[in-house]
Structures are given as C-alpha cells and as structure tokens.
Design goal:
The complex is a heterotetramer, with two copies of chain A and two copies of chain B. By secondary structure, chain A is an alpha+beta fold. Chain A has a single domain (2-126), classed as Histidine kinase-like ATPase, C-terminal domain (Heat Shock Protein 90, 2-Layer Sandwich). Chain A is built from three helices and five strands, in the order E-H-H-E-E-H-E-E. Chain A has helices at 17-24, 33-51, 99-106, and strands at residues 2-8, 57-65, 68-75, 109-115, 118-126. In chain A, strand 4 and strand 5 (118-126) form a beta hairpin. The longest helix of chain A has 19 residues, at 33-51. The two termini of chain A are 21 Å apart. By secondary structure, chain B is α/β, with parallel strands linked by helices. Chain B has a single domain (3-105), classed as STAS domain (Transcription Regulator spoIIAA), CATH 3.30.750.24. Chain B has a four-stranded parallel sheet with strand order 1-2-3-4, with helices on both faces. In chain B, helix 1 runs parallel beside helix 2. The chains are: A alpha+beta, B alpha/beta. Chains in contact: A-B, B-C, C-D. The B-C interface holds B 1-21, 25, 28-29, 32, 73, 109-112 and C 1-21, 25, 28-29, 32, 50, 73, 109-112. Strand 1 of chain B pairs antiparallel with strand 1 of chain C. The structure holds adenosine-5'-diphosphate (ADP) (2 copies). One adenosine-5'-diphosphate is lined by residues 46-47, 49-51, 78, 80, 85, 96-101 of chain A. One adenosine-5'-diphosphate binds next to helix 2 and helix 3 of chain D.
C-alpha cells in the first residue's frame, strides 16, 4: 500500500496527517495509530517550523510492506544541521526542542539526507500487533 | 495575649480544554494562560481530560506557562488526559514528572 | 479546540498573636484555630512576630493545629517571632524544621 | 542571693516566675533570662500538669552563688516515674512531651528525688557572661 500527501507548510494543513495515516493503515492494529500520528506530526511540524521551503509545501510518502510503515518527508527548504541540535537533558525542563526526541522514541528508524536542493527524511514504524 | 485575624482570598483558575492541543492551538492557549498572569493570578489548573491529542508544540505552551507561573510564586497543574494518545507526549518527554498532575481538578484544588 | 474556564476562590486566614503563648493561652488559641477547620478552611498563617514568649504548651497548640490542617490537605504556617526568647522553643525541639516559617505573611502568601 | 516563691498550681500563677527570676538575677547578664525563664517555666508547668499536689501548690527556691543559679521545685504530689517517659524522636513530630527535653537542653544539671511525700527537683543554670 502506497500513498502520497502534499501539504502546505502551515499548522492547519498538519491536521490532514491523522486521517491520511488512518486510511493508509486500514487493516492494521489501530492502537498503533496514535503514536505513529504523533511521530509523523513532529516530523512535519519541523518542516513547517524550520525548513523555510521556497514553495511553502512539503510531501509525505507512505508505504506499508511486511508489517513496516515507511514514511518519507521531502521538502526543498534549508538543510538540517544535526550538529547544531542539542538533545534535551531529561532533568532540566526546557520549553521546546522535544520534537526529534519524541520522534526518535516512537520510530524504529530515522534518517536524514540532503540530495541536491532536497531534504529527505525517512522514518519507519513497526506495525506488529502488540 | 492579643489576637487579630484577617482573611486573604486566592483564586485558582481552572481552564478546561477539549479537542487537539497541537501546533495550531499552542499560540492561542499560551495567550489565554498569559492573560491570567497579566491580572497577577499565577495559580492555574489546565484540565486536559477531554483533550485527545497533544504534540510537542502543545506541550511547549503548557511548559512555558508552568515556568512563568512558578517563577511568580504560583503553579500550573494538570488534570491528566483520559486518552492515551494525549498522555504519550508527557511520558516520552518525562514532563509527567515535572508537572503536578492528578485525575481531577477537585483533587488538585484540595491539595493546593 | 473548545475552551471553558472557571475560578475557585480559596481563603488563607492570617491569625496575628501578640504577648505570651504559654500554657494559659494554649487552650483558647487551639479553639480559635479549630473554629476555622469547622468551617472547612484548612489554610492558616499564624503571625508570631509580636509574641515574646512561647513554651512547650504553646508550641503543642500550634503543632496540634498544624497536624490537623495537614491531614485535611491544608497547612498551618508561621511568621517567625522577632524575639529570640520566642524562637528558642522552636529551635530546641527542632520544630523550626517541621513548620513552614517565614519572616512575613506576605512571603508565605505568595509562596502558598 | 536566695529567694522563695510559693505558687498555686495553675497556669496563671506561672506568670509570676519571669518577674521573680528577673529580681533574683539583678546584676547578672540579662540575655540569659529568657532561656532560664523557659526552663523553669517547663519545670513548673509539669508540677501543675502532672503532680496533682493535694495542697494545690508548689514552692520554688532560687539561689545564686559563684555564677550558678540553682532552682529547686518542691511539691507534695504523685511521684515522677522517669521510666515511663519516652524521649521524643526529633524526626517524628509529636504534639506534646517536649517539656523535659527543653529543660534538659537549657539547664546544666537536672535532678529529681522523692523524699517522704515530697518531690524535689533541682536544676542549675550557668550565669557566665557570654
Ligand atoms: N526539518 C528541519 N529543517 C531544518 N532544521 C530542523 C528541522 N527539524 C529540526 N530542525 C532543527 O533541529 C532543532 C530541534 O528540533 P526539534 O527537536 O523538533 O525541536 P523544536 O522544533 O521544538 O526546536 C530545531 O530547533 C531546528 O534547529
Ligand atoms: N512533675 C511531674 N510529676 C509527675 N510526672 C511528671 C512530672 N513532670 C513530668 N512528668 C511525666 O513525664 C512526662 C513528660 O513530661 P514533659 O517532657 O514535660 O512532657 P508533657 O508534660 O508535655 O507530657 C509527662 O507526660 C508526665 O507523665
């Protein structure tokens, strides 16, 4: 099962992610939907907040195979500089900066590559029943 | 022994939310909470029982407001969401250890 | 997102004493403090700034009232006496570590 | 310097102790008065609370010599049973039972004897200037 969703880079558009994932995962354990939605939502929020894509949009690609959901996010914004990110210290509550930390805990895998003028994020989620 | 007495009234404001507390709502919620601080009231309860989704932006709005309350001698405390999907972000970031949380606003009010 | 708000008023009563808090006064003070509890109010501040003598019976009245307040989800907190003679009994019994104490009721109210 | 004070066994009478001690200690460091008053007050409160003296009274004797104040309290009440007293645990706040603990910290010495039908308490306080 494959699906593509092109979204404008704004917070209202992000609300389409949940229903799109629900469609994509019909037939799979629905109890996983909430945590997958949160993870994909964090990935997409980062594109809205930080990528500054010149076309004001990004694309989500979803793909289910062998009980694994793969999500790719592609935008044409500024590159992501992993070196500049400081992982939050759990003992020091800070106001923001939890998006990637949350996604990393929910996903099986998270990869980022810059290809030409494109940012490509790829993340996978296990769909095994609990 | 001379005795004199007086009474100070203190307000605890309870803000009940329902629906999604995501990036779209984080800004307006932050403004609503700040409006109490502008009045000098720094004791707030945010009732999340009927909230079904919280993301890191929604969390950040609550964290910012909680820090502002505490630095003014008050606190922002939470009534836990009933939906697991809304609790997840608190557990993953360990903010369930930072906020004072309970299952009802009555419980929070009686222990304040 | 739907938002609804409400406000709960909470009373903190401040009882200011002056003179001697000794065995003779312990009974009446205990009764005065209990009268608030009978109303369901369990947040009290006893201002001891102008008290010049406290003995173990006066201390016991405060300790009893503090325990009753805490077991009802409230607290009884103290404004420290300015006189060393009145502070002595708190230090000798280590109750200065058990009571929440401050130099003014304003400080106690803002941190409540 | 010696002085005797006979008091009725009630709380109002205890208020005579402070002025009596102040008289007895004229010429000595007055900063000690507060802690001595507290100690003697605790001793006397115990006679009011626990001795049940048949004559409803007790006597205080004060004596200053060589920078030492000796106070004796005599009543004709029930004997004091030291074995039945439990010293308060500082980590467990209790409501009462702090009188003797307070006195023991303030006094240099505290002795109790039962002679015939009389209870005799003797306690001393150092009057050295700080
Ligand atoms: N898609 C992205 N493009 C560019 N920079 C990003 C992107 N995602 C994250 N970043 C950078 O990584 C940081 C940490 O991201 P995150 O953990 O999601 O927290 P937050 O977005 O709340 O700052 C961001 O502040 C930003 O500097
Ligand atoms: N003068 C006294 N005569 C008889 N019993 C006494 C006397 N003083 C103390 N006691 C006994 O010792 C116990 C401890 O005394 P104290 O430390 O002063 O605490 P409290 O008087 O608050 O109980 C008393 O409860 C009482 O049983």
């Amino acid at each position: 099962m494959k699906s593509e969703l092109r979204l404008e880079a704004n917070y209202l558009a992000l609300r389409e992610i949940g229903p799109w994932l629900a469609d994509l995962l019909v037939g799979h354990d629905s109890s996983l939907l909430g945590s997958i939605e949160l993870g994909v939502h964090e990935l997409a929020t980062n594109s809205v907040d930080h990528a500054e894509s010149p076309d004001g949009a990004f694309v989500l690609l979803g793909h289910v195979e062998n009980k694994v959901l793969t999500i790719e996010l592609v935008d044409r914004g500024v590159p992501f500089e992993a070196a500049e990110v400081t992982v939050p210290d759990p003992d020091v509550p800070q106001v923001g900066g939890y998006g990637l930390m949350i996604l990393e805990q929910l996903a099986t895998e998270l990869r980022y590559v810059r290809i030409d003028d494109r940012n490509e994020w790829r993340t996978t989620f296990a769909l095994n029943p609990m | 022994m001379k005795v004199s007495t007086e009474t100070h009234e203190r307000a605890v404001h309870v803000v009940t939310l329902s629906g999604r507390l995501d990036a779209l709502e984080a800004g307006p919620i932050r403004e609503l909470l700040s409006s109490y601080y502008a009045n000098g009231d720094h004791d707030l309860i945010v009732d999340l029982r009927e909230v079904d989704f919280v993301d890191s932006a929604g969390l950040a709005a609550l964290v910012k407001a909680m820090k502002d309350a505490r630095s003014n001698g008050g606190d922002l405390r939470l009534v836990r969401p009933t939906a697991e999907d809304a609790n997840r972000v608190f557990a993953l970031t360990r903010f369930d250890q930072v906020f004072v949380m309970a299952d009802s606003s009555a419980e929070l009010l009686s222990d304040w």
